[in-house]
Every structure is written in C-alpha cells, then in structure tokens.
Specification:
- This protein is mostly beta strands and about 120 residues long.
- It is about 0% helix and about 55% strand.
- Strands 1, 2, 3, 4, 5, 6 and 7 form a 7-stranded antiparallel β-sheet that branches.
- Strand 3 and strand 4 form a beta hairpin.
- It is globular, with a radius of gyration of 15 Å.
C-alpha cells in the first residue's frame, strides 16, 4: 500500500452532539480514519471550544491497512473526561503517520434522522 496517502494533521471545525435521541438510535459524531500504510497510526484528538480551554488526552490507534471509526460520544481521555453534549466544539486530529480522515454526524434528535459527513481540512 502507499504510505504517502493522507495527512498527519486534520481539523474538524464544526462539532456538536445533541443529547436528544428518538427511537433506537443515539445521536453521535465520529472521526473515521483510514490508514493505508504499513505502520500503526497513533492518533491524538484535542477538542476546542468557544468559551473554555481545550480538552486533550484523547487517544486512538488505527492499525496498518485498516479503518477506525472513533465515536466521539464514547471516547474518554486520559483523565476520564468525555466530550460534552449540547456544546459546539472543533477537533484537532494528529496522527503519527499519514491517514485519511472523515467526519460524520448522526443526528436523531427528530424522527426524521439526519446523517452528515465531510472530509476535514
């Protein structure tokens, strides 16, 4: 595989997880990563807010030639903290090797569910 596909730094400027869910689904966001290289990607996430200090210490790994869907409603940092719901945020994604990143939002706060996805900057 080509280890040069992707970037080491990705930015997701628009994050928001609703605390309201309808039906059997849970509103959530995910950072979906693809590692096309031959070395495991050690991934660090830092969450930025409008009115408070950044929240860091979130870690994940994406094995070589694999994907990892990092659920932002489930990830816990090294201090046991979670990303708060009902608060706008942005995410800085840093990887030890080049990865391709995608941001997905599943909003089920209303009966007509919405799925949004985009490639970060």
């Amino acid at each position: 595989m080509n280890e040069n596909i992707g970037k080491n730094i990705w930015v997701i400027p628009d994050g928001f997880m609703s605390d309201t869910s309808c039906g059997n689904f849970v509103s959530h966001e995910a950072v979906c990563v693809l590692n096309l290289g031959n070395t495991a990607a050690k991934i660090s996430l830092t969450v930025m807010f409008e009115d408070r200090e950044p929240l860091g210490g979130f870690k994940a790994v994406c094995e070589p030639r694999r994907t990892n869907h990092i659920r932002l409603d489930k990830i816990v940092n090294d201090k046991g903290e979670r990303i708060p719901k009902e608060v706008p945020y942005a995410v800085l994604v840093e990887s030890s090797v080049p990865i391709v990143a995608q941001h997905s939002r599943m909003d089920v706060s209303q009966p007509s569910m919405t799925l949004m996805t985009t490639i970060p900057y």
